[in-house]
Amino acid sequence: MESTETSFTFSELSISAPLLRAISEIGYETPSPIQAASIPHLLAGHDLLGQAQTGTGKTAAFALPILNAVDLNRREPQALVLTPTRELALQVAEAFQSYARHLRDFHILPIYGGQSMDVQLRQLRRGAHIIVGTPGRVMDHLRRESLNLDGLRTLVLDEADEMLKMGFIDDVEWILEHTPPKRQIALFSATMPEAIRKVAKRHLRDPKEARIEAKTATVEAISQRYWLVSGAHKLDALTRILEVEDFDAMIIFVRTKVATEELAEKLSARGYSAAALNGDLSQALREKAVERLKKKSLDILVATDVAARGLDVERISHVVNYDIPYDTEAYVHRIGRTGRAGRKGEAILFVAPREKRMLGAIEKATRQRIREMHLPSQQDIADRRVEQFRELVMSTLENEELSFYSNFVQHLAKEQKLTALDLAAALTFLAQKERPLLPALKPPASELSHDRGDAKTPRAPRRERPEQAGGEPRENRRREKGGDEEGVLYRLEVGRNDGVTPREIVGAIANEAGIPGRFIGHIKLYDEFSTVTLPADTTKQALKKLEKTWIMGKPIQIRLWADEKAGPSVSIRKPRKKAVSPE
Ligand code: AMP
Question: For bias kind Basic and acidic residues, which ranges apply (predicted)?
């Protein structure tokens, strides 16, 4: 059994330089416990039985050793990852792709039911180093001999208990029996029911075990709530919470160094005094940030686990787990930053539906129920603003010398033949212009989920500035970017039928062309292609790189939308709803 403490760094693991570089760019600071417990065994070629759920970092635990061993000159499947759902297959493929960003000509192919067989056959013929797929479809291809696993070195069963629950276990066994006998197997499962143990016993050779232990801890002084991430974007949810929560100082936990900076920047842009705290900052800078928090010149620190270790500031009233921690121990450390010196503390946890198992584990470990919370409504926010404004007015009346201003109002009223009430209304409006007492109603939460604007209406893409395409959330994004630049529309030859989502497109453009995500504008997905708005000043060099970029195993063949001679030549079907379905 492995300990849950992560005592070493990524560079101490023997993984190749291009992978270390990618990890550092993505912003991981240290291996998560399951990574620390799994990676050395997998690198040494052992079979592995890993007990870990979503959110623990298990994908990198198997992806990094696989990528470390991949022979890029051999374009045949060297690793196969089986996942219970198409959604997970895509996520895993995306994770591999991001770790492999510095591996030249690396190809990974997700295959799952529901996707056009023709497309898959074509992609399989082109070849890939790694296949990620759902059991049914992988079996189909093995039977048709369109997938050849003779060169397979590693097989991963991801979320094996889910595959069992969904009735795929016979398919999984069939696949195991149709792979070369000497391949390495890594089996990951959140729970270890008997049927999974049996599979492990039958197929794994002398496996090493890696698991995350759940220790219990008391956190009585801290009241815990969670918000089930649904509909609204996490940033939007956080801003609403910040509006109504009565907080003194707050620590917000995210997973990566990059995320600390991005989120701190976004909160600052919204008027909060926020700063990032991560392992890249020198000790002196970290101390300075903590000092500022103590002295109240800073109210919010956005931190990684490592950077916030041991932080002891009495005025921290709230801990927000913006990204769920990878284990219960990290959670207990995080929320222990509040409720200090006999005070009460509040902990808020954002949980995505697929992370609910971790929520259960946390409740068990802290032996406390975590209450579900709902996002403050627009009315709640309005009430709170009114209340704060009232307090401000009353304390101004009490504490300031206002005779000059009274004279001014009196004079203006007389001159313009207005009542003092009219003037007070206008001045209230002006005083709260940036923070209206009656905030504009945003679209219902469900519409906010399309962060990068999955198209909702079956209109042909036009040359348009991203912010003209929709409602308020997009306008917010533009403001966030702080730019007013004109965008140019491009067409990419990957679409929904290839399983692409806006995230892959942003990832590929950011990585290949070095265009930061915040400058990548509106993305629309269609069945056969997609469109993206890029800054008008995108360099030729960046475009050249994009011309050679592949996403989801396909060259994207980027070109100007305006170059489409006859305008939209493809019949544009209504974009399908994103389905999250097995197989
Ligand atoms: P997973 O459990 O594989 O679904 O990973 C959950 C999330 O944790 C993903 O967003 C990963 O990018 C992130 N993650 C994985 N490993 C690390 C790490 N060592 N440091 C920070 N974040 C990580």
Answer: 448-484
